[in-house]
Amino acid sequence: MIEYLTLQNPRELDLFVASHTRGHYMQTAAYGKSRSDYHWSCVVLRNDNGEIYASIALLSRKIRMTPCRIFYAPRGPVFSNLTEFKEICTAARDYCHQQGGYLLRMDPPILENDPIYPHQIRNMGFHIDPRDDYSAYQPRHVYQLSLLGKSEDKLLASFHPKTRYNIRLASRRGLVIRDGNRRDLPIFHAMMRETAARDGFQPRPITFFDDLLTAMGSNASLLLAEKDGNVLAGAILIVLGNKAWYAFGCSFDAGRSNMPNHLLQWEMIRRARWFGCSLFDLRGVEGLPSPLNPAYGLHHFKQGFGSHFVSYLGQMDLPLRPGWYFFIQTLHRFL
Q1: What span, in angstroms and rounded, lies between the C-alpha atoms of 135 and 281?
Q2: How far apart are CA 252 and CA 243, in angstroms?
Q3: 108 CB-contact burial (10 Å; exposed 0-12 / middle 13-18 / buried 19+)
Q4: What is the pLDDT of residues 250-305, one digit of tens each?
Q5: In terms of DSSP bridges, do strands 101-106 and 69-73 run parallel, antiparallel, or are they unpaired?
Q6: Do 108 and 75 meet the contact criterion of CB atoms below 8 Å apart?
Q7: Which is nearest to 108 in space by CA: 118, 99, 100, 98?
Q8: 0.90 exceeded by the pTM?
Q9: Partners of 58 in beta bridges
Q10: DSSP at 312
């Protein structure tokens, strides 16, 4: 049975997503509440007992100067097998088309080298985008760390010696990690703007982080690294079910030699373990882990924590109105 959910009845969905092996916090209604710049909706499939067995949470917005909407499922859908994937995609396609959609875009956590899904997805009419930089909606390449059955000592022992040294150096220099709150958002955002200028990306507005922390509630933590009462770096940790994500991070240029980011990362890993998580996701990187890659520094940093490189299939588009799809894609190329 197909059902359509709104933000007024989300609890059952979030419990399903949290318990699913393919569940991601961006597929929850809680995350949808944080994206007030989009319209949130969700399609779920129920079995004969009325239980949800597949879902896809959708963010949509109208395209200016057209009657069309774009629908996007961040890290969705949530499904267990190929049959469920086809069912939920078909239901989502029909729903999005009925709602005036010209495009259904998604980036599910399907591995690039999966032997089954890539061929099937193309047969369903999706265009798979091979880009692996930050111009995609979600990063195609991420680093992940398994926490299953590992003590803190075992985790530390799995880190690169230089990473362990930097964590201890930060502690020796008096750095501490504290929990932040909404009053700390201005300084967190100041760090984010400085990081964006340093690394060449467009920072999100402060309201985005405020909305995210509010909507995710106890599932999200703002962590700050301080030395002598001065904030040097910050991060947002999100926990859902048995998974945790290093969602956002930033730092001031001053004080980076004190290794605040190493200490922050270690604290997030420790907390993920305390919460009973089996996986910690260090999130995205650009390109492949080669020293020839100009962005290799971030790869090297994340590798230092014993994490492994994961390549997903990537962003995929299903045109719902081919004429409008061609027109809008062509327009974007010239803007």
Answers
A1: 20
A2: 28
A3: buried
A4: 999 999 999 999 999 999 999 999 999 999 999 999 999 999 999 999 999 999 99
A5: parallel
A6: yes
A7: 118
A8: yes
A9: 41
A10: B
